[in-house]
């Protein structure tokens, strides 16, 4: 039995659908879904679309992740083995070793689709296939043991998932030159801290609380003052204390073992458990309103004994704990004139401070755990990494708040990455490379991402602005959002009366979500008063004191002003400037939760885009968590919003491999005598010689402009086999020439980068010019005789600003005065205007994004720098259409709408083609409708003297009267004469109407 056969026999039964959807005989969405369902019913949860893995949560153990399965997938070519998460992990690892380039595995899907389990299996596989030295084993153990620890503190039971990640995690595993793990780093994103104090009915708080209460010994329960879960206000509101499939006692043992592995001492463990107990008891702390008239707004702690217990667990003075809850220190003035006032708090304010302290204690503890793990596995050297992204899935609950908004926002950005790198980029590559291709339509979710994050007007930006206002409320925030996004396709107003609450709607790629405005501002401000910070810093427990004094290192070097501000804060008693909740001295805005998360997402995207991506698309088959139960409607919805069908169409029509000619040569040049020992000529020519010599059939590949595209995997297998044999023959020689090779490789990469940059800049300019040229063909072809100047377009023809006024200060200031700060010049040129007396005059026109201007220029600039007056301003909304003749002239008539106070504008310009094309583009964007353009030889128009008419006539000769013929070398010769109530224009015959324009570089 061959290895290939044993893999398939052990991994899956025969003839159950197709394992790669590219092989479907009938390509449609129903066939795709039916194939997934058929395989899922047989326990085959993995299917692929080329390199993209689809994973369906089975809700039971399948026994396909043991050592036997790992051995079957180790080191195999991806086309030899059936789909499996180990296949993705092996491909990423092989690519890292072969190319020495960073890899990332992006796991996406909604909550409960199995993302966390998938990430665990990837870690398990990598740990099993790498080296076994003592140091490597230590690093692997640390990486694997970090999972149960972070799950205990960061996961919880939700209505959709019994082990739902309530934080985002990006785990980077760094490898040494031999391909063994030498370190790593974990980045966490936005822990759902509100879960500490409140949960939906049927859900649980974070696992660690139930593990602590169930798994602690009698002595520990006494030392930490632990009670049953029903007695804690932070746990009993949801009326749920257990989760199916979760053994809290066993999990607590695993958590404690993980703490030991990552280097958390027994003393630190005790302080962690004391802190967790204190957090739970904080929820039971209540307050009583002040009894005197003078202190009617004040309150006192109801149970002094309970507050003393909490204080002892945290390691602070009971009086200081009480004081930080029932009052707040307000500081006024600066420097030596600072005055401090103790302001009593109401019951509601005290409860808010209590909850804020509980959330802060837990959040900072979680961040400390992540830092502790990173300290144990981080290395100072830089090497290639495999990143595994396990982040919260898309969430649509009965009530969605601020947390769901940011969670769904990051899922939108991940969907955008998938679209960019698998649909958009791949199709653009085929077009760019000149490969025969039928485009596949797809839904681009970038507008939805921009709705949430874009500056200066995005939901998070407006939210930050509202948080700065003293009287900002959720109501005013909602009003601003409804106003700014009224016309946005992904935003909707909610029916406030019907739902009896303030809401708005976002049309996400995964569906429509209603967001409740409750506590939006408070959650975004993420306020923690200095009294509570000082309380934490005063703790006698080293852990508590450290987590409140910790200051994250700056992402970049501090400026001199930032250093002065920091020193000033420290002199005034603020050890950690990041914790200062008053308005900072340097006038910078305080960091909000939304702003911080947006920054984290931007950093994550930067990391992901710098890696070679691999994708696992997870599907949740049903809402009931039943094994192998298939909800057709739910699965179909996920298939659609994950873009699987579009991905299938792209992959089916595409090629299994594509490599730049130079890269292809670097990998396979040793296979042919004509390209060995080195190839210095044209890379494409080298590829042609190589493929001809090794006798690869010509129908198996296709040449692009810069890459070789290989359709089927068999030629790759053949070349890889030949390469392995050849390397064995050349290994002695390669060892001798290694140093020379490394130096040459660096040099070639540098030159290649310069060439790519140069080619990219030129390609971007030419691409835009080609797009506009094609649009001009749609406007003029078969409608109007052409002339030479209209057909010979330079690469810079469509830049538009022919008079170079976009940097003229007076022009810029005038346009901003006319339109506002967003005014931007799009086109400027000289024209020959037909005036009311049917005389031709030289004029200057400007076009912005929304208006058409005619200028009256002065003979020389005035002292204040002004050199023109705005003679006419025609808003696009008042423009009805453009009219041109069918002949080869350059006259354009701009018609205004009926009822407008403006009159039509007739002019002649040698830039007619560029003007009409750019004008049509700007009009479409401004008015959201196409600009009508008429072609006829008799044009009625309205001048200041009433109705007039242009009549065009094609003639063989213009006569000999020099006064009526244009002499400008850039203008087309014509004669004009006003006769019998019409302005008659005679034009020579032009090029045929079906002539095509060309681009002159």
TrEMBL record:
Residues 601-623 are annotated as: Actin-binding. One of its GO terms (biological process) is endocytosis. InterPro entries: IQ_motif_EF-hand-BS, Kinesin_motor_dom_sf, Myosin_head_motor_dom-like, Myosin_TH1, MYSc_Myo1, P-loop_NTPase. It comes from the Eukaryota. Keywords: Actin-binding, ATP-binding, Motor protein, Myosin, Nucleotide-binding, Repeat. Residues 786-978 form the TH1 domain. GO terms for molecular function: actin filament binding; ATP binding; microfilament motor activity. It holds the Pfam family IQ. SUPFAM superfamilies: P-loop containing nucleoside triphosphate hydrolases (SSF52540). ATP binds at residues 109-116. Residues 16-724 form the Myosin motor domain. The keyword Nucleotide-binding applies. One of its GO terms (cellular component) is cell leading edge. SMART domains: IQ (SM00015), MYSc (SM00242). Belongs to the TRAFAC class myosin-kinesin ATPase superfamily. Myosin family. Myosin I heavy chain is single-headed. Dimer of a heavy and a light chain. Inability to self-assemble into filaments. This is Myosin IA heavy chain. The lineage of its organism: Eukaryota, Amoebozoa, Evosea, Eumycetozoa, Dictyostelia.
